[in-house]
Amino acid sequence: MIYIDKKSKTPYYLQIYYQLQSDILNRKLKSGDILKGSRMLSKEIGVGRNTVDNAYAQLAAEGYIESKLGVGFVVQKINKVNFSTSNTESLPNLKYESEKFSEENIIYNLSYGDFTVDLFPAIQWKKYMSEALSEKNISNVNKCIDGKGDIHLRKQLVSYLGKSRGVCCTEDQIVITSGLQHSLDIICKLVCPPIGGTIGFEEPGYDGAKVVFENNNLNIEAIDVDDKGLEVSKLIKYENSYLNAIYITPSHQFPTGATMPINRRYEILNWSRKNNTYILEDDYDSEFGYHTNPIPSLQSIDKDNRVIYLGTFSKTLSPSIRIAYFVIPKQLLNTYNQTYGRYNNSVSWIDQYILSKFIESGFYERHVRKFRLKFKKRYDLFIKELTNMNDDIKIHQNGTGLYFILEFPEKYNQKWLIRKARDEQIQVYPTIQFWQNKEHCPKNTLFIAFSQIDIFDIPDCISRLKKAWFTE
Question: How much is the pLDDT for 153?
Answer without folding.
Answer: 96
